Amino acid sequence: MLEVQELTKVFGTFTAVDHVSFDAHGGEIFGLLGPNGAGKTTTIRVIATILGATSGTATVLGHDIHTDPEGVRRSIGVLTAEIGLYDRFTARENMRYFGNLYGMSGPKLEQRIDELVHVLDMERFADRRAGSFSTGMKQKVAIARSIIHDPQVIIFDEPTAGLDVLASQTVIAYMKDAKAKGKLVVLSTHDMAHAQALCDRVAIIHRSKLLSLGTTQALLEKTHASTLEQAFLNIVGEDAALQTERDREERHLADAAKKKRRRFGLRFRL
Q1: Model's pTM, two decimal places?
Q2: Mean pLDDT across the chain, nearest whole number?
Q3: Using an 8 Å Cβ cutoff, are 169 and 2 in contact?
Q4: Band of the pLDDT at 256, cuts 50, 70, 90?
Q5: Residues whose CB is less than 8 angstroms from the CB of residue 55 and which lie 6 or more positions away in sequence, other chains included
Q6: CB atoms within 10 A of CB 121
Q7: What's the rounded Cα separation, in Å, for the pair 98 and 143?
Q8: CATH number of the structural domain 2-216
Q9: In this predicted model, what pLDDT tens digit does every residue of 1-45 receive, in sequence order?
Q10: Residues 86, 74: Cα–Cα separation, whole Å
Q11: How far, in Å, CA of 188 to CA of 43, rounded?
Q12: HEC secondary structure over 74-102
């Protein structure tokens, strides 16, 4: 269902994704694992055609990201860190709006909305405006929005972020059900415990490169580890993992400083 071949994304002098290749199939939950800043989200954005690839390619159900981006977008449902809801719309209205964008309307769309309201346990707030929602409530609506068109390939980037334990279990149950129905679920996360419990196969990305690929059990056996977290540390090295986190913090501080300088410059000109 998903084939990624030598995918690369460069921003200026920084390589965010470096010749990453893997494939993933229907009826499995495929984990894209690594620390924050490893390149997971950029990989997802390129696959989803939100960003253009510098080189390499990816195909979703035979649709190439370069030659058939519309076909790719019709075939996938993508949840990223940007929740992207309209605060003045109710949960149902947000889902209806995005359903309309996918060409859905009428009874079929309303039936799909009702289904997602039930599956994601949103009955209590489905007809309330999103501006008053908690982070967890918004995350549920964002998930529903991303899968309103019932895609065969589902890509979730940290889907349980901001959710409590019960809400997380609702999302996890949905992913398991999608797998049982023969769909492909790509789970991008730095939560190794969730990945170990859910994923059939995993790809470990570190510093923009894919370092290891295989079944969860095979990676545990290969690294002589009992948990994916320990397997990850064995593969990349604890010092390297710590340096990656320091690099990510430095980039965050540098970006914040640039934004502050731009705001100061604007005030000065005014």
Answers
A1: 0.83
A2: 88
A3: no
A4: low
A5: 6, 7, 8
A6: 15
A7: 12
A8: 3.40.50.300
A9: 899 999 999 999 999 999 999 999 999 999 999 888 889 999 999
A10: 22
A11: 10
A12: HHEEEECCCCCCCCCCEHHHHHHHHHHHC
Per-domain boundaries in the chain: 2-216
Helix (H), strand (E), coil (C) string for the chain: CEEEEEEEEEECCEEEEEEEEEEECCCEEEEEECCCCCCHHHHHHHHCCCCCCCEEEEEECCEECCCCHHHHHHHEEEECCCCCCCCCCEHHHHHHHHHHHCCCCHHHHHHHHHHHHHHCCCCCCCCCEHHHCCHHHHHHHHHHHHCCCCCCEEEEECCCCCCCHHHHHHHHHHHHHHHHCCCEEEEEECCHHHHHHHCCEEEEEECCEEEEEEEHHHHHHHHCCCCHHHHHHHHHCHHHHHHHHHHHHHHHHHHHHHHHHHHHHHHHHC
Mean pLDDT of 215-237: 89
Give the residue among 91, 82, 75 at the shortest CA–CA distance from 186. 75
Q: Which two tokens stand for residue 147?
A: 């899968």
Separation of CA 251 from chain center: 21
40 is written with which tokens? Answer: 């997971």
Which pLDDT tens digit goes with each residue over 115-126? 999 999 999 999
Tokens of 188: 């991008």
Tokens of 165: 């334990």
Tens digits of residue pLDDT in 130-182: 999 988 899 899 999 999 999 999 999 988 877 888 888 888 989 999 999 99
- Whole-number CA gyration radius for the chain: 19
Find where tokens 């948990």 sit. Answer: 227
Instruction: Please say if the pLDDT value at position 204 is more than 60.
Output: yes
Q: How many CA atoms lie within 13 A of 146 on its CB side?
A: 25
